[in-house]
Amino acid sequence: MPNKPSARDAQVILQLYDLRREPEMRKARNWWMAEFWPASADDFLKVAWAMGTQENNWLRQVGGYWGIAASLVLQGAVSEDLFLRPAFSGEMFVMFGKVHPFLKELREKLGDPEAFLDIEKVITNTKWGRERLKFVLKRLETMRQRMANKA
Q: pTM above 0.90?
């Protein structure tokens, strides 16, 4: 992977950002960020196995988007440094953070050891990414506690 992002890398990032603005993708992203709070692999699987539902579509749309975007980094098609800037990939960290606590069990139950693997590799490939994930996991736990206290 090149050390210094190029103008081509910037163009790819802008194109990826533009895809996030599509109306249905905005709905899917909002659902992931605001409404979808799986507490276990089974919570995730309830949605994953509910084919044909709006939530299932949104689950796959956002997960697929970030999986594809991460694969571009892993294949060297876009700068890792540019991709990992919080202004672009912060949402990916939140999405991954929501499944991280039960990722091993989720992979086992899906029968897919590569579920979220490209995203995990991009996030954990750098010290900065690993530290950012720790930060996001703490923030998500605080948000879960606040939501539980309101209920």
A: yes
